[in-house]
Amino acid sequence: MGRVMIIGGGVAGCAAALAMDKAGHDVAVYEAHPDSGADIGAFLTLAGNGMFALTQLGAAEPVADLAFPLTSLRLTAATGEEVATAPLNPGADRLTRYQCLRRADLGRALRSTVAARGIPVHHGARLAAVDEAPGRVTARFGDGRTAEADLLVGADGLGSTVRPLLDPAVVAPRYVGQRVFYGYTTKAAPPTAPARIDMIRGSTAAFGYAVSPDGETYWFARVTDERLTEDEIAHGTPTGWRDQLVPLLRRDTTAAADIVAATDQLMVTNAHDLPDVPRWHTDRVLIIGDAAHAASPATGQGASMALEDAVVLAKSFRDTGSTTEALTTYERLRRPRVAANIAASAQLSTGPSRPGSPPVDEDELHRQLDWATPL
Ligand SMILES: Cc1cc2nc3c(=O)[nH]c(=O)nc-3n(C[C@H](O)[C@H](O)[C@H](O)COP(=O)(O)OP(=O)(O)OC[C@H]3O[C@@H](n4cnc5c(N)ncnc54)[C@H](O)[C@@H]3O)c2cc1C
């Protein structure tokens, strides 16, 4: 294949850079942000499958170093009664356990691994246009720069520039009917246990929290409501969001309202998904991660899907004979996997609205992600 240009230095972009570099390609990353990736300031959980993908890319250790592990989940009803507890990914080792970390720390760990491999990352490079010609692809950036490669990978997220260049008729991301609030606090003392994530099936919100080993509570609340306008998000304040959320959560006898009331750092975003992107690639341009297939946040799998994409993409190039075959193989393997996650997440957000795809067989997935095994 030769030269690979990756647009976007977020989760998918950094992981694809590591994977394609490992497969022997000459990789460069172009990121719009002047000094890091885009960061909405929230935290995320990385599931065992995402961590396993990171082990294959040699990036699990730096991520685990900045995260704290989650080994069990407790589900509570709106009354505060425990409904169930379950182990998370039992038998996993330190690097393949569920992990919880700030988004900025995940970006930092991935970018430092990319830098340590000597992969160039060009910051402040916002892609504006793509010219595809037989045998090569040229990217044009907003500041007038251009770059050429044999393959362009669009890893530029939900608001992708590459996606409509592949198909101008592609539909915009869909609001799934929920606002997601996030926060951190050291001033709350909710019921907890080491390495446990608590999920509360509240009457007004799906609420989740985990307490880090140094006593900081990380929490989120998914609330069904109208989509927030850009203006509301831009002008909202942490105090204002907290004043909206606490009375809703007070209707239940759970720890949720007290956690939020004790929080000063609070953020909100609309939850979107992107289930139906018909065209993922041309001869020399491909989209991956949220640019191709975003799920709403409910299953907490979007970043892990992006990490899986990266490994399967590089193996598709490694194990097939041509770019066409590699891109076809990649799409054949990834479509059912991401469709199942998008459907599961949408079901948790809005109730069943589309036929669920059958889940992908775990052994088969492990085989696809294991670098030592042919696809
Ligand atoms: C509220 C919320 C909570 C979530 N929680 C979880 C969770 O707990 N677990 C989980 O696994 N997932 C979670 N997700 C999903 C996860 O964040 C995404 O699936 C993941 O970030 C996708 O990675 P990506 O690299 O495809 O996109 P992004 O992370 O959005 O990265 C895209 C990158 O491309 C850059 N870029 C954009 N346009 C251009 C351009 N024109 N030129 C150059 N660069 C460009 C951006 O600056 C950015 O750095 C959550 C999402 C949300 C919204």
TrEMBL record:
InterPro entries: FAD-bd (IPR002938), FAD-dep_Monooxygenase_BioMet (IPR050493), FAD/NAD-bd_sf (IPR036188). Residues 344-375 are annotated as: Disordered. It holds the Pfam family FAD_binding_3. Keywords: Monooxygenase, Oxidoreductase. GO terms for molecular function: FAD binding; monooxygenase activity. Residues 3-343 form the FAD-binding domain. Transmembrane segments: none annotated. This is 2-polyprenyl-6-methoxyphenol hydroxylase-like FAD-dependent oxidoreductase. It comes from Actinophytocola oryzae.
